[in-house]
Amino acid sequence: MPTKSCIVCGEQIQLVATRCPHCHQVQNRFYQFFNTAWGAVIFLLVVGLGIAYGVTREPINWTYHASTIKASEVKLRASNSARGTEMACIALLKNDGTRSWKEPVIEASFFGQDGQLIDTATQRFSEVIIRRGGEARIRVREQGAWDASEYARCDVTIRDAAPD
To answer: What's the domain range around 75?
Structure first.
């Protein structure tokens, strides 16, 4: 039967052997390369570069992308109940950007009959994902400080979102 030399100890072994019967090393040059000092150095270098890339990579800043999501169909619902004034600002968020966003933080500003700001509410929507080119309907609820008849309109501002 034809033989070859072990790539580690140099003993003669069968040509089809995958392991040396003398030193028990695998007879694969690629695998064997990583058992050498140079292989270890290259492996650690690649891992180190990967970690450095992950640490130094610029995080996605929401403020640069804030203009890609627009609020439309903004509606105010205000009613008096035994618990006080219950308000809701309902809006449709449309994503015109190239990136999907999740967990938007929405600020609703409530205005009185005279146009003055009289209340605000901020809410994180942890289960909302706004896909690129998609839309999502949200409702910000709040207990109002004024009578329901004092509230005239609301506006919606997206304060933050995480990339999906």
So the answer is: 62-163
